[in-house]
Structures are given as structure tokens and as C-alpha cells.
Amino acid sequence: MLSISKDIDIQKMQSHLFCQIDVQVLRLDKIHPIVSGNKWFKLKYYLQEAIIQQKNTVATFGGAFSNHIVATAFACKSVGLNSIGIIRGEEPKHLSSTLQAAKEYGMEFHFVSRANFIEKENLKTQFEPNFYWVSEGGYGLLGMQGASEILQEYNDDSFTHIIASCGTGTMLAGLVNTAMPHQKVLGICALKGYENIHHSIQQILPANKQLPDFSILHNYHFGGYAKHPSPLIEWMNALWQAEQLPTDIVYTSKLMYAVKELCKNQYFSSTDKVLIIHSGGLQGNLSLPKHTLRF
Ligand SMILES: *Cc1c(COP(=O)(O)O)cnc(C)c1O
């Protein structure tokens, strides 16, 4: 039986790093060591829909270190569905730790060249017509709907800002959907030059509903998606030492860095109260050489 921990908590930042601003972190990473917190939320309604449509196999796309791939494998196994991962790039000699974990959860892989990977609709036609397809990263309405549940339990009206990392923007759309009208939602984009993300988020938000303001910051990608230069690694270690907060190299380390900078640059007022969503992703750190991180 595969289970997900309900042992999520909110950790209040204590050190000088956040300049006395009230900054609290919702630890969705504690849901599971491999299955990234936000992916679990995003997948929920896709799997429900697959079951309603009486499909027995879910197929999706991702890279060799993708949190979405391993989360899909796990989530499918937990509800008795088969899973197929269409993986970008040639089959490696040794599977990455991410793919090894996905394989243990029963996922079957198909490796496709980077050129062919771009042609998703074409790729789909090469497989069984009765697969249930989930788009890369879980982007879409049902993903937004699942992510909407993140705030249901943990939000309270004393928070003035809700801040999260974004890749496809699906989680952020869910946060915008359930944040309170006076709250400002801020996304820290993990991709370089993805200016269109604002539009992608708008597209999956309910149209006929008054929603709070949201904005995306584009200057905290540290060189691009999954790039992790040594200043980022040093920041992750410093944050761990100061707060005992583990972060991942792709998303949450850049998110926490951005919030630290915003605090330093007096973006917040002294009465603001900030809720940061730690969306998980720690399994991705296994791709680093041993002893790079202190946690
Ligand atoms: C996938 C992922 C994100 C990005 O979520 P989107 O909904 O695609 O924006 C953020 N953080 C972590 C840890 C992730 O795995």
C-alpha cells in the first residue's frame, strides 16, 4: 500500500536572513520523500478522470529528472492504474535516480529524441488510442483544480502574501483560485525567459470569478531551468544551516532566495505576513555529487 503523509506543517523562519519579516513556509515536501508535494495535488483529478473514463493506463511526458514523472508513477500505482512515461532524450546506460524510482512504481518508459519530443500530438498517435494523456508537468484545468486544494487547509486571512515557485504555472493558478481577495499571490519563475507564463496561468483560471492579483518575477532563475551554479548551492547550504529548511535545486531554492532578496530590498512592510509554499522536489537533489549539500 502506498501512502502519503498527512504530517504537513508550517515552519516559521527564525533567522536574520528574512530581516524580521514574518515569513512562514508550508512544508508540502513532507508529504513524501520522492513524490513532490504539489505534483500529488495536481495529479489527483486527472487520475479521477482517467478512472471515470474507464482507462487503465495513464501516459505522460517528462525529462529524466522530472518530479512529474516520478509522481505520476507513484500516484498511478496507488490507485491501480498503469503508467507510461514518454521520456525526452535517448535511453541512458544508467537510469537516473528519478527514473529508477518511477520504474519501481511500475512505470514503463519510452525514450524519444529531443527533436521528436517536441511533437507531442504526433507522439500520442504512436500509442494505444485508449491511454489517458496527462500533459507535461500536469498543466491544465484539472491540475489547477487539484492545486486549488493546497490553500484550503492552511491559508488564513492574516497572510498578506502567498508566494510559490512556477514551472508550468498550474500550481500558481490553483493558489490564485483559492487565495483570499486581499492576498497578493506571487510566482517565482524557474524557467528563463518564459514571459508567456502569465498568459498560460490566465488560460486555466475560472473566467467568471473575481480573483486576487497575481504577478510573476522572472529574475530568479539562476541561469535557467535546472541550472544550479555554485552560488545557488551555497545559498541552499546557508539556508539549511540557518533554518533547517531543505530545498531543491530546481524550484524551491530559487523561491527562497527570491523571498530573501525581497525582504532585504524592503519589498514587504513590517506588518506583512508571508506564506511560502514549499512544493517539494527534493528527490531531484539526488542527481548532485555526494556531499554537495549538507542535508
Ligand atoms: C513541478 C514543480 C513546480 C512547478 O509547478 P507548476 O505547477 O508546473 O508551476 C514547483 N516546485 C516543485 C518542487 C515542482 O516539482
Question: Can you describe what's shown?
Answer:
- It is built from eleven helices and ten strands.
- It is of the alpha/beta class and 295 residues long.
- The chain has two domains: 10-34 and 148-287, Rossmann fold (3-Layer(aba) Sandwich), CATH 3.40.50; 39-138, 3-Layer(aba) Sandwich (Rossmann fold), CATH 3.40.50.
- The strands form two sheets. A six-stranded mixed β-sheet has the order 1-2-10-7-8-9.
- The radius of gyration is 19 Å and the shape is globular.
- The mean pLDDT is 95.
- Bound molecules: pyridoxal-5'-phosphate.
- The site of pyridoxal-5'-phosphate has 20 residues, from helix 1, helix 2, strand 7 and helix 8.
Report the bound ligands by name, code or SMILES.
pyridoxal-5'-phosphate
Report the CATH topology name of the largest domain. Rossmann fold
**The number of domains:** 2
One letter per element, helices H and strands E, the order comes to EEHEHEHEHHEHHEHEHEHHE
What is the approximate shape?
globular
- Strands of the largest sheet, in order across it? 1-2-10-7-8-9
The assigned CATH architecture of the largest domain is 3-Layer(aba) Sandwich
Any idea what the radius of gyration is?
A: 19 Å
CATH class categorisation of the largest domain: Alpha Beta
Structural class: alpha/beta
Helix content: 25-40%
List low-confidence stretches.
none
Number of helices: 11
Give me the count of strands: 10
Q: Major sheet: size, sense and barrel closure? A: 6 strands, mixed
Mean pLDDT figure: 95
How much strand?
15-25%
Instruction: Give the CA-CA distance, first to last residue.
Output: 28 Å
